[in-house]
Amino acid sequence: MSQDPEQAKKLQDLLKMLSLSQGDTSKLTQPQRKQFEEYKFWKTQPVARFDEQVDDEGPINSSQRPEDIPDEPLPLLSEFEWCTVDLTNSQQLEDVFVLLNENYVEDQDATFRFNYSREFFNWSLKGPGWRKDWHVGVRTKQSGRLVAFISAVPATLRVRKKLVKSVEINFLCIHKKLRAKRLTPILIKEVTRRVNKQDIWQALYTAGVVLPSPAATCRYAHRPLNWSKLYEVGFTGLPANATKTQMIAKYTLPKETDTPGLRSLEEKDVDEVYDLLEKYQSRFDLVQVFTKEEFKHIFLSSKNVVYSYVVENGGKITDFVSFYSLPFTVLNNPHYKELGIGYLFYYASDADFQYPDRFHPEGSLKLRKRLNRLIADVCIKARDLKMDVFNAMSCQDNSLFLDDLKFGPGDGFLNFYLFNYKVRPIAGGLKQDNTFDTEKRSSVGVVML
């Protein structure tokens, strides 16, 4: 699995720290000691080790039963108490909204922060089969304020040829002032306990940091839609030997879409598009397998969050594409409060279905042309919805169009992890130098929010 030099150095530093786990750690700096404690926790969990050679893929620990799992959660510090967050309650939904919008992931310079909407939480956390007790919170006893949160949603994964009953873990958030309280491991253990009580033992989760041990690593890519605004808020810089006028011209999109038959996904399309997506997803080694009920919820239920389109020609749907909206709050900027951001979600095309081999040269060329046209039109749709940048990753078949459509490689990498499941490395669409691999492409077909 390829990693950039900075990630490789971090990994080497980490391995040195782990070697001290049975010895003297007093010489570690305070940041190193904190990092060491994080990895010390993961060493106790059923996850693949960095240096582990995986021959047989499958569960790491398969002997437990729900009745073996404690009925009561781990104890918390005296000033905190566990809670189950009821997202059907408007005030509790508001509590999650406030916690994440004030404390969730932001960039290192504290310039941007995710700006989740209430509708986004309802869409992402209340799909078919959702459980209230999988929305885990910590409140202060004195004020009742929500200061920590983690969620699990049910998911059926296909890891290569095996179906795995699982959950996706997301929205782990600790209030900024409490991040020295070691709440993260306890939150992870508590959501694990609640999931295990339902006889589910595997989970998929992602992180920008390197933990033991990534199943796959993908890279972010950004396609400016409103370059001048991105420049003014500090999201992008002005390259050497270029002018602002040149950069604006470089990223200007056509006024109208170009794909004949492109229209919004409708209820009547579900059966045909579901089959198209399922066939397209079969080419990847790590995917989420949807039921039709899940498909409807994910792609049709939230018009202001997710946008889904099909291409219909001669009464047949040949392509499907979707993206979702997750804006950034712009911090400490007198002129702009928000960046509109679109994220490429799931898509499917029959462009190369006639070829038995996914990497057949003629089939790859046909798919590349089809996706270039389709994703260019999606960027136009996103621009017309007042989005300022369109994000994608190196997963799926994205490397076929990222460079062609002027997506710039981002600084961020996203690592995919499987809990209690060993797997051989899965291609993330990157070459050894972390440029996009248009030949081998990615075998990751799942898209995490």
What's the total count of β strands? Answer: 18
Corresponding CATH superfamily of the largest domain: Gcn5-related N-acetyltransferase (GNAT)
CATH class of the largest domain: Alpha Beta
Provide the structure class: alpha+beta
Whole-number mean pLDDT: 90
Helix content: 25-40%
Task: Count the DSSP helices.
Answer: 10
What are the segments in which pLDDT stays under 50 over at least 5 consecutive residues? 14-26
CATH architecture of the largest domain: 3-Layer(aba) Sandwich
Biggest sheet statistics? 13 strands, mixed
| Integer count of domains | 3
Q: What portion of residues belong to β-strands?
A: 25-35%
Radius of gyration: 22 Å
Distance between the termini: 23 Å
Written account of the structure:
By secondary structure, the chain is an alpha+beta fold. The chain has helices spanning 5-18, 30-42, 90-103, 118-125, 183-196, 227-232, 244-250, 270-281, 292-300, 361-384, and strands spanning 58-59, 80-84, 112-114, 135-140, 146-159, 162-174, 202-207, 216-224, 262-264, 286-289, 306-313, 316-325, 328-330, 338-339, 341-349, 389-393, 408-419, 421-422. The protein folds into 3 domains: 1-44, no CATH class; 56-215, 3-Layer(aba) Sandwich (Aminopeptidase); 217-422, Gcn5-related N-acetyltransferase (GNAT) (Aminopeptidase). Strands 2, 4, 5, 6, 7, 8, 9, 10, 11, 12, 15, 16 and 17 form a 13-stranded mixed β-sheet that branches. A 3-stranded antiparallel β-sheet has the order 3-13-14, with helices on one face. The protein has a two-stranded antiparallel sheet with strand order 1-18. Strand 6 (162-174), helix 5 and strand 7 (202-207) form a beta-alpha-beta unit.
